[in-house]
Amino acid sequence: MVENRITNVAIVGASGNSGRFMAQAILETGKHTLTALTRAGSNANLPAGVICKVIDYTKPETIVAALRGQDALVVTLPGQAPLETEVALIEAAGEAGVSWILNDWAVDTQHEDLVKDVPPLQKKVSVRKAIEKLGKSNYISLCTSFWYEWSMAIPDAFGIDLINHTAIFFDEGDTRITISTWPQVGRAVAAILSLPVKAEGSAACLETLKNKVVYCKSFTLNQQEMLESACRVTQTTKDDWKISKVPCEKRYEEGQQQMNKGEFDGFVKVLYTRVFYPDGCGNIDHKGTINELLGLPVEDLDTATLAAIERAKAQP
């Protein structure tokens, strides 16, 4: 760390869906040296300028060694990664003297009913508690809600099939939720890491975000508005789409039954349908975002929808 700024940043998952956008945005600031932690044999395609260090999760000392001299650790593990893996990273970061950990990238895990109804979200809460209990690093958990390009391209997620032009509205399709694009998440992470640690005059600083869940977004939308964007991008009308409706609670229960059978599609249904419940758990606008503090831009919805369509076309 140089004076009042973070300079050395490590990232886990730098070649992943969201991690690659974070890595690229961090590099583009020109303010940080970025190190990617990868496993032996990994074929990760890292951006130019990223330092690569190999770690072995069965040998914690390799993680500690890779994190020595790092000011911050950005953790972007796959959703199915076990809690023990992230805890191993946290413990190694603490031993290596890493001051800041950025994590989460999820829906609002401070909403107790949502976490209760979607048990896999409990892992996010457990990670924060583990960092607090260890007491060696500070965390900033960034709630980005769903990734738009990812979710819009999966019919079971937002209920919209961009290829076959069908849409299933949950209830009436009018419940609004907040959403982030991958580029916006990348910009947010880079901007957070570029803040001074302590306040410089009236400027924002990391200390104000320390050990908090903070929120960023790209859009606040309902399914009807998502479909309208899809129509504009594909130059179709709603008459060209087969539209149906399903009660949220019914879809959620169907998802639970699938989960009990070990089907991943069930988890997708449970998570996405629950966030569209009319209790407002998916809309974080009332909690306030750090978009303005970080200088994040206002994005174009149709551009993001086009990216989702391209992704949907690329899927097998």
Automatic annotation (TrEMBL):
Domain of life where this protein originates: Eukaryota
Keywords of this entry: NADP, Oxidoreductase
Gene3D superfamilies: NAD(P)-binding Rossmann-like Domain, UDP-galactose 4-epimerase, domain 1
Gene Ontology molecular function, alphabetical: oxidoreductase activity
NmrA-like domain ranges (all copies): 8-141
Pfam families, alphabetized: NmrA
Entry protein name: NmrA-like domain-containing protein
Native organism taxonomy: Eukaryota, Fungi, Dikarya, Ascomycota, Pezizomycotina
